[in-house]
Specification:
about 0% strand, single chain, about 75% helix, mainly alpha
């Protein structure tokens, strides 16, 4: 399974990255927005894409809550990371376009690990890897 200690370190690093960024995003951002959406109070949410405040909130909840949960378990990791990266870039460069750098910084700090996971994938300690192995033909034949 593992060729070198470097492989183990890489996969543990990706696991920590997924757990930390996904978990922090759910706790610090996604959960509150999910509660706002469930309470029907999305009317004042920013509408950076011109689709309406409630739809913008729903799309943000999709990314910040659901996609973050997918990252935590390592399922559809690149899909989830793409949606989270897109959301963070919209937050930084559209929602906070005219704001000082400090207001953009948190979105940009989150964008970095999401971009990394988009390119690196989930690693071997993930549901993505379990699915990949179950779809691969058996080597015993």
């Amino acid at each position: 399974m593992y060729d070198t200690l470097r492989d183990i370190g890489r996969d543990i690093g990706l696991l920590i990255l997924r757990w930390a960024t996904g978990g922090l995003m759910i706790y610090g951002h996604g959960w509150g927005k999910l509660m706002t959406l469930m309470e029907g109070q999305g009317g004042s949410f920013p509408d950076p894409l011109g689709v309406g405040s409630e739809i913008s909130l729903a799309l943000t909840v999709f990314a910040e809550f659901l996609c973050s949960a997918l990252l935590v378990v390592g399922f559809a990791t690149r899909f989830a990371a793409f949606n989270l990266l897109f959301t963070m870039l919209v937050a930084a460069f559209v929602v906070h376009a005219g704001d000082p750098f400090g207001d953009k910084e948190m979105a940009l700090v989150y964008a970095i690990p999401f971009a990394s996971l988009l390119f690196a994938g989930a690693g071997r300690v993930s549901l993505d890897e379990l699915v990949r192995r179950s779809l691969r033909p058996s080597q015993d034949d």
